[in-house]
Specification:
- The two termini are 26 Å apart.
- About 2% of the residues have low confidence.
- It is built from 10 helices and 20 strands.
- The protein is of the alpha+beta class.
- The chain has an 8-stranded mixed β-sheet. Strands 9-2-1-13-20-19 form a 6-stranded mixed β-sheet. Strands 3-8-4 form a 3-stranded antiparallel β-sheet.
Length: 389
């Protein structure tokens, strides 16, 4: 199929799939993206919308923290359309929080995350809505973003460079020849109810928490642990900056301003099936308690909505919040002796461009394409162009 240019088929149109389509289209590949729902209809559309500074991970997961701050800076440069550059605070509310402060400060410095130490009075002047009993605070370059616009901006730019997107097309099986080479996928057009084959030189599985399910029996070798979290939105914007608890990662440790709302997140537990995640009343109540502790004004708001998503965390001998938030790219030729298939999973929304770069590097190596990555310099077009293209 390489008569003109190599054809790469990407399964999944979340942040990573859309960013990877953008990268590969810039490198001159023919790109097709198939998605069983609409753009960002899985985990990507159910995030709390935090542009991570890396501060949450700088003590216990410094690899992920450095990825976050580096990509935070890059995303600010290549697109302004979906990011609110509001900054963030890490606030100490207990003596235990104060005891964590030296570790946080050392971790942030080690990960080149710019921070500034604030007195309680300085913190309250910046954010009058936070708990008046604040003992100490640090500024961090957090931000918030619109999840759908982030995915669509990458997709729109990819489309302008020739990528094709097939929403509501579900992959049923991989097409594997007698030599153990993936040659494409069989898909179901969920609108028409018809099945057909899509041929490709390389298939990329970018389905996140579904990475172990989307490619059938070959997904058993992908160590992804779907780890859901509950988020709750309230109907008033009580803060202008992201407010984090200055403490080890825990449930309800971050409150994010989103448009005219605030969103508290998140819980963390493991499930086997990312398609079935129950909303548990006790977790919703815990989110409310933690939100009120950070910003007492939440007690006078009304709940706007409850939602959840399954993080695609990389499995290991640890569990839950101990799992790394970094990402990995798997070549199934190495893992399963199945050529023509790559899986990319893990990571954060903030790091989707970096995830795409690493995936595209491996894809181009396998396809014999020498074009370099351009996504660090190329500005994204407006998300509105996705439907205009």
């Amino acid at each position: 199929m390489k008569a003109d240019k190599p054809h790469v088929l990407i399964i999944g149109a979340g942040f990573t799939g859309c960013a990877t389509s953008h990268d590969l289209a810039l490198r001159g590949c023919e790109v097709t993206v198939v998605e069983r729902g609409e753009i960002a209809s899985g985990t990507s559309g159910r995030t709390h919308g935090l542009l991570h500074s890396g501060g949450r991970y700088c003590v216990t997961d410094q690899e992920a923290a450095i990825e976050c701050i580096d990509e935070n800076i890059l995303l600010r440069q290549i697109s302004h359309q979906f990011i609110e550059f509001n900054g963030g605070l890490f606030i100490a509310l207990t003596e235990d929080d104060l005891a964590f402060a030296p570790k946080f400060e050392a971790g942030a410095n080690a990960c080149h995350i710019p921070i500034e130490r604030l007195t309680p009075a300085q913190a309250l002047k910046l954010e009058p809505g936070i708990n008046k009993n604040v003992l100490l605070a640090y500024t961090v370059p957090d931000g918030s973003f619109d999840p759908l616009r982030l995915a669509m901006a990458f997709a729109a730019t990819a489309k302008q460079n020739g990528a094709k997107f097939f929403a509501f097309h579900e992959v049923l099986t991989l097409l594997v020849n007698g030599q153990g080479k993936v040659e494409g996928v069989r898909v179901l057009d969920r609108h028409a109810g018809k099945e057909f084959d899509l041929q490709a030189d390389l298939v990329i599985n970018a389905t996140g928490a579904w990475a172990g399910k989307a490619i059938g029996k070959y997904g058993q070798s992908v160590p992804v642990v779907p780890t859901p979290g509950i988020m709750v939105a309230y109907d008033q914007r009580l803060i202008e900056r992201v407010v984090n608890r200055l403490a080890p990662a825990g449930d309800g440790d971050i409150l994010i301003p989103q448009r005219r709302m605030v969103v508290i997140g998140t819980t963390s537990y493991e499930v086997e099936d990312p398609d079935y995640i129950p909303v548990l009343d006790d977790q919703v109540e815990e989110m409310f308690r933690q939100a009120v502790f950070l910003v007492p004004g939440v007690k006078d708001t009304k709940m706007r909505g409850i939602y959840m998503s399954a993080r695609p965390l990389i499995g290991s001998t640890t569990a839950g919040r101990s799992l790394s938030r970094t990402f990995k790219c798997y070549d199934h030729k190495v893992m399963d002796n199945l050529d023509g298939l790559i899986t990319i999973t893990g990571g954060k929304a903030t790091t989707c461009r970096a995830m795409a770069e690493k995936t595209a590097d491996l894809a181009c190596e396998k396809l014999g394409v020498s074009a370099p990555c351009q996504t660090r310099q190329v500005p994204l077009v407006s998300y509105r162009e996705y439907y205009r293209s």
